[in-house]
């Protein structure tokens, strides 16, 4: 593990064992690392393995899923080797997660205040009174003008954007070193999206927190990410800093994603589209997983899956075009 990396994932494989002896290789040999204070965006279509990667880091993969092999080294410890009790001390306190649908992540029968206070009392070992004061302050920081009133409200009484802010307040309550944000703005309208993402960015800078941002929205990536990893078929297909990815995408899949974005600079009759869909994880082909949808596919692409290789410093691509 490099000296200044907070999270270093190596060779992560998370497989789901289905009926008829089928194996879904949802995450298949992923390497990723994040430094303190950095935002790494994990990008790709639904079904590419982004969320399973994040759930694997949190060790929240349920049956029939299993972390098959690999290391998840966080702050010097391999999380794969921790038992449930040890891992429950890491979750919430050192690694926090914001899920894409706060209505299912927040408990509907407890007030917002109750849910923040419970987290603080459990992890910070402070009294309920101290936790209550801290919770009110957190809600203010997260943009609740009536913080005291919000403490007494239930999730269903808040709008989607406010529920997401409440989730952020719970997530940052214990000053985590790493925050995983899984599609944190999916169900929100554009102005609220921007407010929520600005808030996340502000918290990241304030607490020097590392952020793993999982999204399919490239506009969000351009605005907030330092580095980008593009994921397809359970594997990383390209990695570079955000500016480089947008200026000079190498992998045909990355190019396809960018061509599907509207641009203010050039006028086009039709936006690009990538034909087909991501294959189910138990039906990945032997060759390159993108070959059936790729305009540049060659015979060897269908024979063997290319390795992820460095094309220049800080730049990784999984494609035979760059060998």
Portion in beta strands? 15-25%
CATH fold call: Rossmann fold
The portion of residues assigned to helices is: 25-40%
How confident is the prediction overall: mean pLDDT?
A: 92
| Strand order of the biggest β-sheet | 6-7-8-3-9-10-12-11
Secondary structure category: alpha/beta
User: What is the N-to-C succession of helices and strands?
Assistant: EEEHEEHEHHHHHEHEHEEHHHEE
What is the CATH architecture term?
A: 3-Layer(aba) Sandwich
The largest sheet is:
8 strands, mixed
Shape: globular
Report, as a whole number of angstroms, the end-to-end distance. 27 Å
Taking pLDDT < 50 over at least 5 consecutive residues as the criterion, the unreliable ranges are: none
Q: Number of domains in the coordinates?
A: 1
**Helix tally?**
12
Tell me the total number of β-strands: 12
Whole-number radius of gyration? 20 Å
Annotated CATH homologous superfamily? P-loop containing nucleotide triphosphate hydrolases
CATH class equals Alpha Beta
Pfam families: ABC_tran, oligo_HPY
Family: Belongs to the ABC transporter superfamily.
InterPro entries: AAA+_ATPase, ABC_Ni/Peptide_Import, ABC_transporter-like_ATP-bd, ABC_transporter-like_CS, Oligopep_ABC_C, P-loop_NTPase
Main location: membrane
Summarize the structure.
Belongs to the ABC transporter superfamily. With 323 residues, the chain is α/β, with parallel strands linked by helices.
């Amino acid at each position: 593990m490099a000296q200044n990396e907070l999270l270093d994932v190596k060779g992560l494989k998370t497989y789901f064992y289905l009926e008829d002896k089928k194996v879904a290789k949802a995450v298949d040999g992923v390497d990723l690392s994040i430094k303190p204070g950095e935002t790494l965006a994990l990008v790709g279509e639904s079904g590419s393995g982004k969320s399973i990667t994040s759930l694997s880091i949190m060790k929240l993969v349920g049956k029939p899923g299993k972390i098959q092999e690999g290391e998840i080294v966080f702050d010097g410890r391999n999380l794969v080797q921790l038992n449930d009790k040890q891992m429950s001390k890491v979750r919430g306190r050192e690694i926090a997660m914001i899920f894409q649908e706060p209505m299912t992540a927040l408990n509907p029968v407890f007030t917002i205040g109750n849910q923040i206070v419970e987290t603080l009392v459990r992890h910070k070992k402070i009294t309920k009174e101290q936790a209550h004061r801290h919770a009110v302050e957190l809600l203010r920081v997260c943009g609740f003008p009536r913080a005291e009133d919000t403490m007494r409200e239930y999730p269903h009484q808040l709008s989607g954007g406010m529920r997401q802010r409440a989730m952020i307040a719970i997530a940052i309550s214990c000053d985590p070193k790493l925050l995983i944000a899984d599609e944190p703005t999916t169900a929100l309208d554009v102005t609220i999206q921007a407010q929520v993402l600005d808030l996340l960015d502000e918290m990241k800078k304030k607490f020097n927190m590392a952020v793993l941002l999982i999204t399919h929205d490239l506009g969000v990536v351009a605005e907030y990410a330092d580095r980008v990893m593009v994921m397809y078929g359970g594997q990383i297909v390209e990695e570079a800093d955000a500016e480089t990815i947008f200026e000079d995408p190498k992998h045909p899949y990355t190019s396809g994603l960018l061509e599907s974005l509207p641009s203010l600079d050039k006028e086009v009759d039709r936006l690009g589209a990538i034909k087909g869909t991501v294959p189910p994880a138990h039906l990945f082909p032997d060759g390159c997983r993108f070959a059936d949808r790729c305009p540049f596919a060659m015979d060897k692409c269908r024979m063997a899956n290319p390795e992820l290789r460095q094309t220049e410093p800080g730049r990784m691509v999984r494609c035979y075009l760059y060998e």
